[in-house]
Design a protein that fits this description.
Helix content: over 70%
Radius of gyration: 23 Å
Shape: globular
Number of strands: 0
Number of helices: 20
Strand content: under 5%
Length: 522
């Protein structure tokens, strides 16, 4: 990876400790992510949010990911300096997330906490997106499943400790888990302080213990690779198609928004309608770019260079154009991701409310029963992440024997059955049992789709495609935040336990969908 060494023609296999170092930063990133997942709903409710308000407040997380990840992916693909192209973003994301973790538990009002969630999640995404591409950059194909499984291992370990921190602080160090109305409990505040420090130190470990291949080296590796990646873009979307798409999406967005306004539908649906509406002008912008390129090519007889010229039209055009021209395997994996992450987001939003209501029999956020239940949920999240860390060790072994698709299908069914079983377990002390299945699914979701995807992507676009792949994580989260509260209120009398059951069903649908993905099963 050094510029002073002769260029290699094939990526060398890395040692265990080299892979360990390059993935260790994910321990810190997941520390922050787990603290957010396990405690933000609790913070919102403590500051006065109702159960119906929680999904819309959580919209910050997926929306910032939707915007930030493809931008960071594009920038990291096209940036190179003495610190490489991915590691500068690790540093920036780590610093910003650490500061957000320190400030979040001091939020004096609900709107401040919601704003801090936006900042925190944007910062986490700045650091997290390049880590996905980092594994694809540095590892040969045969080691990528191991690399992403190693990330899953550190995600599990980090999340175990982070999710359990408030419970541990309360039950082993006598830190109070209750506070006056409108204030955050000390157990949560101290957990966020500790998490900020761990996140920063872990990411810095990866920054200083790893190196990166230069763009020239990556291009040479791809040129001599026996991997069958179609880097020539065929069937490109033309200006007419972009114009038609612009009219269609804009029209649907306007009609949907008007219907919500005039018929007084749930205001959370504005998230979907405005997103659809916004995608229309984006396609119109791309249509004008393609027209200008075609005109320039015809005037200068440069028809053969048209495809290459499209790749030099800036961030917005490149992201939208790559979205419409993604590899076939990526579009198939998108469906798998959609159902998987809808299920996960249902769990993250509603587990605290479901357990405190269904198993502890209270919705009073100031009561001891509620806070005991919320602490137990944090411990349950630690349990599923602990089993995820264990599962990550075995996933590469199982995948070698059964193939990636079958392995992922089995793992998703384990998670789906685990979520559904919540309604059948009355004793909250036994809720750790379904978390075994959830942990297996979580480890698989964090590793196998990325291993499958990275083997189908050109090296020069690894970052931006990983960012675009995040769309299919974010869109189901936006959908969940928009409609889950409405569905629970209309269909299930507002009982949050049914959000977990719905999540389990969707996770099993994802398991069926992965069997249709057209990639090498191994």
């Amino acid at each position: 990876m050094s510029d002073t060494k002769p260029l290699l023609h094939q990526k060398p296999q890395l040692s265990f400790w080299q892979i360990f170092n390059m993935c260790f930063g994910f321990l810190g990133i997941q520390f922050g992510f787990a603290l957010q997942n396990a405690n933000v709903s609790r913070i919102f409710q403590t500051l006065g949010a109702s159960i119906d308000d929680i999904p819309i407040l959580w919209i910050a997380a997926p929306l910032t990911g939707l915007i930030v990840q493809p931008i960071i992916g594009y920038l990291s693909d096209n940036t190179w300096g003495k610190w490489g192209r991915r590691r500068p973003f690790f540093v920036l994301g780590a610093v910003c997330t650490t500061l957000a973790l320190f400030v979040m538990p001091h939020s004096p009002a609900l709107w401040v906490a919601a704003g801090m969630l936006w900042i925190m999640d944007a910062s986490i995404n700045i650091a997290m997106e390049p880590f996905r591409a980092f594994v694809g950059d540095n590892l040969p194909n045969k080691q990528r499943t191991l690399g992403y499984a190693m990330q899953s291992f550190f995600i599990g370990i980090g999340a175990v400790i982070a999710s359990a921190l408030p419970y541990v602080l309360t039950n082993f160090f006598d830190v109070s888990n209750t506070a006056p109305a409108g204030e955050i409990a000390d157990s949560v505040r101290y957990a966020f302080y500790f998490g900020g420090a761990v996140l920063f130190l872990a990411v810095m470990w990866t920054v200083f213990s790893t190196k990166e291949y230069s763009p020239e080296e990556l291009a040479l590796f791809e040129q001599h690779s026996d991997q069958n990646i179609d880097t020539e873009r065929t069937g490109l979307r033309d200006a007419h198609q972009y114009q038609n798409g612009s009219v269609l999406w804009t029209s649907i967005g306007i009609l949907f928004t008007a219907a919500i306004w005039l018929l007084e539908w749930d205001k959370q649906l504005f998230i979907l309608s405005l997103g659809i509406l916004f995608f229309g002008p984006l396609q119109y912008y791309c249509a004008q770019k393609v027209k200008a390129l075609q005109s320039h090519s015809q005037e200068n007889n440069e028809t053969n260079n048209h495809k290459k010229s499209r790749e030099k039209q800036g961030l917005i055009f490149s992201v939208v154009d790559d979205l419409f021209n993604m590899p076939k395997a990526m579009s198939q994996l998108a469906l798998v991701q959609f159902f998987s992450w809808f299920a996960l987001f249902s769990m993250w939003i509603y587990t605290t409310a479901a357990v405190t209501d269904h198993h502890y029999g209270t919705q009073d956020v100031l009561s001891k029963a509620y806070n005991d239940g919320a602490d137990w949920v944090g411990l349950l999240f630690a349990v599923y992440n602990g089993f995820a860390a264990i599962a990550a060790i075995f996933i590469p072994i199982v995948a070698k024997k059964c193939g990636l698709k079958v392995t992922h299908c089995i793992n998703l069914f384990c998670g789906g059955l685990g979520l559904i079983s919540f309604i059948f377990i009355n004793d909250p002390s036994l809720l750790w049992l379904p978390m075994i299945g959830v942990g297996i699914a979580w480890a698989s979701i964090l590793s196998i789709p990325y291993a499958m995807l990275s083997n189908a992507l050109p090296a020069k676009k690894m970052g931006v495609y990983m960012g675009i792949f995040n769309f299919f994580i974010v869109i189901p989260q936006l959908l969940a935040a928009s409609v889950l509260g409405l569905i629970l209120r209309i269909c299930f009398d507002g009982q949050p336990i049914y959000a977990l059951i719905s999540g389990g069903i969707f996770m099993m649908i994802a398991g069926i969908a992965v069997l249709r993905v057209n990639v090498d099963g191994h």
